[in-house]
Write a structure and sequence with these properties.
Its EC number is 1.5.1.-. It is built from 4 helices and 14 strands. The protein has 201 residues and is mainly beta. It has a single domain, classed as Pnp Oxidase, Chain A, CATH 2.30.110.10.
Length: 201
């Protein structure tokens, strides 16, 4: 099968997200200018640089009470900071609750029953028991083609790693089973690893 996105796919559901998988989930926490915390998952998320460490996430829709975007991006535009919380399999239900379109000014930490802690390097809350948290300061916001496609880039200024996820000096993802987004309503969790040496190792 071949199709041009501009012409449509003629399938029951858009296959694009099912093709680009698995995608890590950035559970983004922000704080608005009034001091209210926000928590929402984004599957267009990834690390983009080592030195200094940098990440990105993209928002691809808008809310009526936020105009051109969603709460996370609106808050980051106001404050210049955000935190990426890594999602483990055990937190899948709380993550899903926080994905709802809640009114601006609602604290999804409270709605989803997620414990919060204050970040160290930025003024923002983080998911207290997440396997890892990446505290970030905004570096740039880029508008993409489309009505509400916005990419947020940030430099990581602080990193938390849960003690039980550290084994022999390494961050062991099999200890918490990272959650990944697939297509449609599907998710996956990482439960096992294998290694490959590069040809020049």
């Amino acid at each position: 099968m071949f199709y041009r996105p501009e012409d449509g796919h003629n399938l029951p559901h858009n296959p694009f997200n099912a093709i680009v998988t698995p995608r890590p989930i950035g559970w983004i926490s922000t704080r608005d200018s009034a001091g209210v915390d926000n928590l929402a998952p984004y599957s267009f998320f990834n690390a983009v640089a080592y030195d200094p460490p940098q990440v990105m996430f993209a928002s691809s829709s808008a809310k009526a009470d936020r105009g051109d975007t969603k709460d996370s991006v609106a808050n980051i535009r106001d404050t210049g900071v955000f935190c990426v919380n890594i999602v483990e399999y055990a937190a899948r239900d709380a993550m899903n609750i926080s994905s709802g379109e809640h009114p601006a000014g609602k604290d999804e930490f409270l709605l989803a029953g997620v414990e919060k802690s204050e970040c160290e390097t930025i003024k923002c809350s983080r998911v207290a028991n997440a396997p890892a948290n990446l505290e970030c300061k905004l570096t740039q916001i880029v508008r993409l083609p489309g009505a509400a496609n916005i990419v947020v880039f940030g430099e990581v200024t602080g990193i938390h790693m849960r003690d039980d996820c550290m084994k022999d000096g390494r961050f062991d993802i099999t200890s918490f089973h990272p959650l990944a987004r697939l297509g449609y309503r599907d998710y996956a969790r990482v439960t096992e690893l294998f290694s490959l040496n590069r040809p020049d190792d």
